[in-house]
Amino acid sequence: MQWKIHGERPVYENHWVNLWVTDIETPDGNRFDHHVVRLRNLAVAAVVNERHEVLMMWRHRFITDTWAWELPMGLVENDETPAEAAAREVLEETGWRPGPVKPLIYAEPANGITDSQHHLFRADGATYEGPPTEKNESDRIEWIPLANIRTMIDRREIVSSGSLVGLLYILMDEAIRCPEAGSARPGS
């Protein structure tokens, strides 16, 4: 069931996004051009404090013209590891220096059309360093109780895949650590 690649070529390339056409053949013998969006790797950080709150940013995304809460995230630069990028993004976007970042989960959010890789990390605790140096990322920065996350997701206040994957994994970890906390759901 593996698709064969007979060749590929770039259609458009820049620092942010690259569009390629790939000549593929499906297992049933059909052959056609498939468009592929090639993106740089993304690093996402879920910073959780001792009060079981997660550091989040309220921001506007112009492409979808929506406001939502997101975890700090950004592109991995050529000279850094995904973990270094995650820590850098937290500091630049929030003004908080995270504790040591540890791998949380790896995801490929739309691997039928893009090669985008999302590296998600968890940091327990952070130290406030001052205002964010990146001024164009968020309207507000807040510590949100983990107990509120499920309801916020249900109300579509959290919609970015990087944030959703990280937060759902954090909630799953919390439920495993404290099963009694995971059993109390609104409306149950």
From TrEMBL:
Keywords: Hydrolase. Belongs to the Nudix hydrolase family. CDD domains: NUDIX_ADPRase_Nudt5_UGPPase_Nudt14. Its cofactor is Mg(2+). One of its GO terms (molecular function) is hydrolase activity. Residues 39-166 form the Nudix hydrolase domain. This is NUDIX hydrolase. It comes from Streptomyces nanshensis. PROSITE patterns: NUDIX (PS51462), NUDIX_BOX (PS00893). PANTHER family: GDP-MANNOSE MANNOSYL HYDROLASE, MUTT_NUDIX FAMILY PROTEIN.
